[in-house]
Design goal:
Layout: E1 6-11, E2 16-23, E3 26-34, H1 46-68, E4 77-83, H2 87-104, E5 107-112, H3 113-119, E6 137-142, E7 147-154, E8 157-163, H4 169-179, H5 187-194, H6 217-233, H7 237-268, E9 272-276, H8 283-294, E10 299-301, H9 312-324
Parallel strand pairs: 1-4, 4-5, 6-9, 9-10
Antiparallel strand pairs: 1-2, 2-3, 6-7, 7-8
Helix pairs in contact: 1-2, 3-9, 4-6, 4-7, 5-7, 6-7, 7-8
Bound molecules: 5'-O-[(R)-(carboxyoxy)(hydroxy)phosphoryl]adenosine (KG4) and zinc ion (ZN).
């Protein structure tokens, strides 16, 4: 292995096109192009996502390389998201990565998106000292597509302890926001409104799930009925109650996540916890896990804000760690929409 490992990471699994440069485990750039085209649909439209990736990918990669101040000829390897994700979106990033890897005759490294969300905790910066979690730790990965509790024994030794049986936590945020008429992604909107609302005003039932699994579809339906009944009596119900609705539904989602997280700590005896995924940007969730830290129930690790939602840096970092372990991907490997660990 050469002295300096320069890895380009490409992420295109859902609706963010992102590329990043990691040099010896240190982030030198992380460029993210968010796709505005989905806003008015209340969720990601797969066909539109893959088309937007097509137009974004070249400028995003170019920008990441430029910002990092490296040359394409200096790249040691290219990491790309093989899955899980939307097939049309994954194809764009994987084909781009393969083409460039062949042209430059450098290593191509496939990355599991869910593993990468967790590995984002190990990204270092040139100018900041960050403390990464020690193994073993429990990761709560909460995004628009996934909700998982993972026991992380080592970088690539991860065991899923529990996961959602229906909607993901981020999806629940997005769907209730859509019910209130807000654009996609709804999570940040709910988060903002919740700050001004009363979390005990409305009650949304928590699903009774076995073990460490989650379910959010009942909550979504209960929210829908509350809004429907409210609007029947008062056409201005949503506008008049949006802050309380947001605060109450956010509390219900966060409580459900925290109940299982605490149970996972009890059952495994591991009390280092790391949040990952888009929903880890949520203030209600951040406050709840920080409470665990203040009451000495757990040591808590929160991701850097730019690493909460989908980003190329987490893909480049995971590829860098795989490269160090001598891993190489087969050029024939096809993207997998439901890739597991
Ligand atoms: O990890 P991510 O970028 O994409 C997936 O892999 O799905 O997560 C996106 C999800 C969306 O559902 C979005 O609404 C949610 O993360 N999200 C939030 C917040 N910021 C993003 N949910 C709640 N509060 C937030 N502040
Ligand atoms: Zn994600």
């Amino acid at each position: 292995m050469s002295a300096r490992e320069i890895v380009l990471g490409i992420e295109s699994s859902c609706d963010d096109t992102s590329a990043a440069i990691i040099v010896d485990g240190v982030q030198h750039s992380n460029v993210i192009a968010r796709q505005k085209v989905h806003e008015r649909y209340g969720g990601v439209v797969p066909e539109l996502a893959s088309r937007a990736h097509q137009s974004n990918i070249l400028p995003v990669v170019h920008q990441a390389i430029k910002e990092a101040g490296v040359l394409v000829s200096e790249l040691s390897a290219i990491g790309y998201t093989r899955g899980p994700g939307l097939m049309g979106s994954l194809l764009v990033g994987s084909m781009f990565a393969k083409g460039l890897a062949i042209a430059r005759d450098i290593s191509l490294i496939e990355v599991n998106h869910m593993q990468a969300h967790i590995i984002a905790h190990f990204i270092r910066y040139p100018d900041r000292d960050l403390v990464a979690p020690q193994f073993p730790f429990i990761a709560l990965t909460v995004s628009g597509g996934h909700t998982q509790l993972v026991l992380v024994k080592d970088f690539f030794e991860m065991k899923i302890l529990g996961q959602t049986k229906d909607d993901a936590a981020g999806e629940a945020f997005d769907k209730v926001a859509k019910t209130m008429g807000f654009a996609y992604p709804g999570g940040p909107v709910i988060d903002r409104l919740a700050k001004k609302g009363d979390p005990d005003r409305f009650h949304f039932p928590k699903a009774k799930m076995q073990g460490l699994d989650f379910s959010f579809s009942g909550l979504k339906t209960s929210f829908l009925y509350t809004v429907r009944d409210g609007v029947k009596e008062n056409p201005k119900f949503i506008e008049a109650n949006k802050n309380d609705l947001a605060a109450s539904v956010q509390k219900a989602i966060v409580d459900a996540l925290m109940a299982k997280l605490k149970r996972a700590i009890r059952e495994t005896g591991v009390n280092r916890i790391a949040l990952a995924g888009g929903v880890s940007a949520n203030n209600g969730l951040r406050n709840a896990v920080e409470e665990l830290q203040h009451t000495n129930q757990a040591q808590v690790f929160l991701p850097q804000f730019e690493h909460t939602t989908d980003n190329g840096a987490m893909i480049a970092m995971t590829a860098y760690l795989k490269l160090r372990q001598g891993f190489q991907s087969n050029l024939n490997a096809a993207p997998k929409a439901n890739l597991s660990f």
